[in-house]
Amino acid sequence: MADMKVYFDHNATTPLHPEVKKEMIAAMEMFGNPSSMHSYGREARANVEDARRKVAGFIGADEREIIFVGSGSEANNTVLSLFVCGTSQCIAGSKMRSTIITTKIEHPCVLETSECLAHRGVRVKYLDVDQYGKIDLDQLAGMLGDDVGLVSVMMANNEIGTLQDIEAITRMVHNSGALMHTDAVQAIGKVPVDVRELGVDFLTISAHKIYGPKGVGALFVKKGIPYCPLIRGGHQELGRRAGTENTLGILGLGRAVEMRALEMPEEEERLLHLKQVLRKGIEERIDDIHFNGHPTDSLASTLNVSFTGVEGEAILLYLDLEGIAVSTGSACASGSLDPSHVLLATGVDAELAHGSIRFSMGRESSMQEVEYLLDVLPPIIQRIRNMSTAYIKGGLHAASR
Amino acid sequence: MLQAGEWAYSETLKEHFMNPKNILQGENTDDFDGVGMEGNLQCGDQMMVVIKVDKEHDVITDCQWKTYGCASAIASTSVLSEMVKGRTLDAAFHISPKEVAQELGGLPDHKIHCSVLGDKALRAAINNYYTRNGKEDKVKQDQVKVICQCMSITDHDIEDAVLEGARTYFELQERTKLGTVCGQCKDEAEVLLEKFKHIHFGV
Ligand SMILES: Cc1ncc(COP(=O)(O)O)c(C=O)c1O
Ligand code: FES
Fold first, then answer.
1. Which CATH number fits domain A6-13+264-389: 3.40.950.10, 3.50.30.10, 3.90.1150.10, 3.40.50.150?
2. Which of A179, A196, B72, B154 could, after both became Cys, cross-link B111 (CB 3.0–4.6 A)?
3. Cβ contact, residue pair A388, B67, below 8 Å
4. Helix, strand, or coil here: B154?
């Protein structure tokens, strides 16, 4: 068994920051309902509102613009579903236009909700991306018109790390009279996010990607923007999200963004260096590879690589046996039959999409870990290729051997 | 608190994944008496099985393979290559994916389709041996029968849909579009649906 443990799957989720853990443990005894007027309730309320101030401060928003929710997925569902209320005029005084634009590389919680909206009569248009995962602003310009009510474009992609120019996109969207949402789950705490600079109307945050607890997130809704709750029936969050607050989770999220504000600035450069070493090492030690994602406009922590002739789940499991945790865009690992929709959208050949691995590093990732990975990975790829039909005589890649 | 299981699949599967048996070394298949290839790289799995045959008794003496596939594909073909040695061609031809899965200590439902390819490639290799040795009469085709004429859906398509997760007639329709025009194929399709569910998943 492996003696070294390496966690390179931070885009899937992150461990609790020690400071977050400390604060949550200290708060374990706090059980009051923030809606209660007695001292138990007031203690909980004070902490929820403190966290709201921290989250708002972290993204340059006003406290009243922050709604705590149960996950990033819930925040995204809320925004898209609100659109249906907006179009059917059940939000007083608003009549949103009936087309929605999103991209082909969004997280499934946006894509599947969009499909559901399409079944409910909404027109949904999907933006293509180029080989690096960037949307085409000209295509967006062509799609925008007086029928478009909402545009949803993710800030950073979870699989390939590609960053979109949300500021420029928002400007175009607003000029056409539509509202703008960005899923910033993967961007927040990794690159600077300021809602005023970006200009967005809605922005999604999830705690567990930034060393906070799972099952809690936040939705930024700009003041004055029409809103309708997804979860109804309570006055919590000013009537915008029913359900007794996840007080401990919210407190953890507040502490998590506070720690991000402290640690983020110096971290990016360090991670970028690790990624460069990883990328160069893979390039030098392994033949027939293909890097996915944008070479520069990308998360410093994320590197996505396709290995010709090798199936991703096999790589993932051999790495797991060596103590290294990564993820793959292979269909086999996900249980579906289609490989990553993100890679296919970037035009990567289906075979390469099946053989892709995502390395996502985090605040504790070290050069030692990168070097260990670089030692372990080449023989694993070699071993799988040795048993691969892709390299047999007359096989697809035999010529390159 | 529960600890992480040692492995995503069974221990036997892990063993075969870590140390796969009978991998064809190198690229040359000339020394073998039958070669079978199934699947393709675009779909994410491909399998090649090669066999040596004791021509007097039609018994398999050696079975090697290569795959482009996931852990389940690697392990199931490794197991299969051990199982067929010493069996007659006829017996080997009739090994079912379920037997292989049992030998592996079970496979999750969504992984069954990964293990089917090894069987298919083995049958292709056996047929290839028959053809090469002038025994065309022995070549056994997997009989293909069109069930839904309107959408031209075969029994194989139904089997594939079941392997990919269809459990009800509605799910079968969703996947294959079978029965969506005249509807006269429904009864026969439902019988096959139950049959393949039973063969592959024992339900
Ligand atoms: C880009 C993106 N959006 C949304 C989500 C969903 O967030 P959560 O897990 O909090 O529902 C994720 C995480 O998987 C993500 O990567
Ligand atoms: S035969 Fe199947 S729908 Fe007509």
1. 3.90.1150.10
2. B72
3. yes
4. strand
User: What tokens does B194 get?
Assistant: 């139950």
* Partner-chain residue, chosen from A332, A391, A393, that has the shortest CB–CB distance to B44: A332
SS3 A386: helix
Among A287-291, A336-340, A365-369, the minimum mean pLDDT is found in A336-340
Q: Which two tokens stand for residue B11?
A: 């221990």
Residue whose entry in the numeric block shows the structure tokens 């400390």: A22
Confidence band, pLDDT 50/70/90 cuts, at residue A2: low
Catalytic residues of B: 43, 114
Total residue length of chain B: 203
- Give the ipTM of the model, two decimals please: 0.81
d(CA A182, CA A84): 18
Domain with CATH 3.90.1150.10 in chain A: 6-13+264-389
- Quote the pTM value: 0.88
Taking the centre of ligand 1 as the mean of its atom positions, its distance from the CA of residue B201, in whole angstroms, is 33
In terms of Cβ atoms closer than 10 Å to its own Cβ (0-12, 13-18, 19+), residue B187 is: exposed
pLDDT of residue A397: 61
Please report the atom of ligand 1 found closest to the CA of residue A74.
Answer: 11
CATH number of A18-259: 3.40.640.10
Could you give phi then psi for residue A343, rounded to 5 degrees? -65, -40
Percentage of chain A lying above the pLDDT 70 cut: 95
CATH topology of domain B146-201: Arc Repressor Mutant, subunit A (1.10.10)
Question: pLDDT confidence of A396, banded at 50, 70, 90?
Answer: low
Which chain A residues have a beta carbon less than 8 Å from that of B71? 313-314, 317, 332
- Ligand 2 near B146 CB (within 6 A): no
- In CATH, the number for domain B11-138 is 3.90.1010.10
CATH 3.40.640.10 domain position(s) in chain A: 18-259
